[in-house]
Write a structure and sequence with these properties.
Residues 1-16 have a biased composition (Polar residues). This is Myozenin 2. Residues 1-25 are annotated as: Disordered. This protein has 25 residues and is mainly α. Helix content is 84%, strand content 0%. It is built from 1 helix and no strands. The protein is rod-shaped.
C-alpha cells in the first residue's frame, strides 16, 4: 500500500498537470 506522503505527491502532480492544461487552453 502506498504511503500517505506518496499519495499526496502523486495527487499534487496530477493537479499541477491539470492546472497547466486548463491554463494552456
Amino acid at each position: 500500500m502506498l504511503s500517505h506522503n506518496t499519495m499526496m505527491k502523486q495527487r499534487n502532480q496530477q493537479a499541477t498537470a491539470i492546472m497547466k492544461e486548463v491554463h494552456g487552453n
